[in-house]
## 1
Amino acid sequence: MRRGERARSRLRMLTPLRRRTDIQTRRFRRGVYLLPSLFTMANMFCGYACIVFAMRGEFATAAPFIGAAIVLDMLDGRIARLTGATSDFGVEFDSLADVISFGVAPSILAFAWGLYPLGRLGWAAAFIFAAAAAVRLARFNIQVGSTHDKRYFVGLPSPAAAGVPAATVFAYPAGINTYAEALPVLAMVVVPALLMVSTIRFRSFKTFDLQARRSYAVLFLFAVGLALLASHPEMILLVIAYTYLLSAFIGLAWHKLRRKEPSGPTPVSGEPAPVQTMGETPEEPPTGDKPEDLSGPSFPDPARS
């Protein structure tokens, strides 16, 4: 027994000691930041509620849940940054919640509302929207630490893409039951899906400074917008969704028009020289450029001498 204890003590002396910091870095942090995670959980709940009500055919109730999810998604990130509660867990949890709220929920809502008469074509188009949202969110996660312009999104953001079918269903909740009427619904789903995975830049409002002083007219315009939203919420939300969808194309057209500058006609090689008209005097050569006298030196005439 004593020999075994001595051997163990020798092995302990030979093994290198580990620092306490090395041991702590291998452990995962337990617990999460509660405040931003609550907003993310509420965001995911809104997406789940939209799916439930869409399957029951209550489209007027299902569509506003996507709008509520968009507001919650805007708040959870800002609250996490303001309170210093950002974490890797929060980023991953937010992405998973967005896949449900802005990928799966809008696709099921669009299929139940207007793509169901198309059969396989309808649910295939709905799946394309959900897949594009997942790819868009995965690409956004790997672009967070890159040096791209923070004023713009690369591709249509998934909340804005989800707002297009949600605003359309909220404005026309009756639904579509015929094959011919369901064909235009494909554009409502496929076009935002393609824009999500594209590289077209869309304006981001994350850099908008709310603490800076603004004109009084800005506050008045905000009041007018609230009044219009309260009086005609269906049409105002529909206009906002499709205006942001078309904003990238309007911006591209505007930049192309600004780049075009008027320029004068350029001379073409081989063009004939201009003809001299009456009244015009030919240009004199500059001083020091007179032609040389090639007749040679002059000698006196012997007959005259």
## 2
Amino acid sequence: MDQIVLIFGLVVVVIILAHSIKIVNEYERAVVFRLGRLLGAKGPGIFFIIPIVDKFIKVDLRTIVIDLEKQNVITKDNVSVGVDAVVYYRIENPESAIVKVENFHDATVLRSETTIRDILGQVELDELLAQRDLLGKKVQEILDEATEQWGIKVSAVTIKDVSLPDTMKRAMAKQAEAEREKRSRIIMADGELKAAEMMKRAADQYAQSPMAMKLREFQTLTEIAREKNLIIISPGSSISPPSSTGAIDSTIGISAGIATKIAKDTLKPKEEDNIEKNKSNTAE
């Protein structure tokens, strides 16, 4: 009988020890309640509780990532966009995370969505597209301040995508095209201004040296003469004094004769071709 009692006692002790010894990992903490009252956070490693009397809740201290659902935001300039964001947070005070809020994860998610809509609704679309990092940092600071009382530290908020309606995409494409056209015209106008300034300087230099102007004229004629099918006629005033009208008249006469000869040489082969065609048609 005594042996049975002893064995029964040993079994009870083993069962109590089995339910009393608890282990939590390095990245976890156990928030212990005794008869409903908070005792504190235990861990990491091994700790003991009193069965039936004590109850504990494990809390993960690692960084938790929340991929928020796409939020429909109306910006300050009344443009409806869809925003995808990611929130990173971790628990710094396990006791507050369990005692001060019913479900710290759901509370953090809902608070994040509300804060993102509030902050992004206060800026214009251009600012939202150009300053994602600054807006994400601003949201992170507000969230961190709001969740500090829950023992939660929001380490970062990242805006990963901004979805625009198709009509807005087309309007932005037209705006970008207009900006590029504006820049190209400004560059062309600046080039024309610089070219005009250089030409004015060159004209002043030629005015001071008439021989340089004559040499430049000869150089231009030389470049034009590379084309074999051109006839270059130099004005009489460039060869003789302006008072010698005979030279000008002779130059005009030579030009007219050359033009007449070129016209005859051009039309003669065509007339011969027409005669040959008529002969062949008559023979047939």
## 3
Amino acid sequence: MSKCARSKAIQNKLRLSRSKVDLFIECPLCFWLDQKSKIKRPSGPPFSLNVAVDHLLKNEFDVSRGKGVPERLAREGLSFVPAVHDSLDRWRENFKGVTRAYRGIEFFGAIDDLWNDMFGVHYVVDYKATSKADEVNLDADWQISYKRQVEFYQWLLRGNNLEVSDQAWFVYANGVKGDGSFDDRLEFKTKLIPYVGNASWIEPTLDRLLECLASESAPTSSEGCPYCQYVAKRRYGDKLKIPDQKPVEVKVRIPRAGIRNTNKDAERDFAIEILETSLDQRLQVDDLVSKVIKKNSKRMTLPNKKRVLEVIYGLQESGGIRLQNGMAILVRTS
């Protein structure tokens, strides 16, 4: 099978969520590793309170669905009605959501809600919850991801033959930290925030994403990716500057369990030996990892792959090999 045919075969099986598109925007390398090598970013704790707020807001708006203007909207002088649609339950379900095909891949995302105006135009609605002293807004730099989120939902829904307004709405609940006791009650101040979206970025971004997905070589990481920065510091060590203190030397300590003879020198030697006997003394990084693991009589597990990758990056740092366009190239010494 040709590389082109193989890429198409892989793509035809793919469903990519909105969050994966956001991952690509944040860092192409993290996205490539997630999809091609199944090496995922560490996940954070679940936002259980946010999920509870989402559930309660859905219950609140479901009471008025298809019947009339909800009291919360009427108080703000708004005349939207929660929309009725045969597919709404699926569109709101995680891992199903609204789907749209683009260049042979199915993209999807689960919306929180959908409102209609008197003309039948649809408005994407997203619920958010936080707890902060200041009034909630969308002004922080990191909230660009919120804006991309509703823009992506608008794009998905338009692919389902809905007339969707550029205007989206955030129902933003802010937990109040008062002076009283808890008494099993948490009060919120909820603000309705309009946002005019622009989905023109989506398809050019998906084109770049598909190019990344079809590539056999890993892309460069985003300059500000904290995950890639952490991995680099753990591998090579770094001096972290702490205000008003001397720089702290961070020493890298990588677990040695599972390495032949409990010594990474063995795997370093294997990598050099394999490159020396390879054509032009170079190999794809993935192939080199596999050959080192096989030569070391280990299983092809994710921890073993990660460990050998650390060895390869260590060889690059010491000048023994050079990594370029997904290739490991032996550095010839005179």
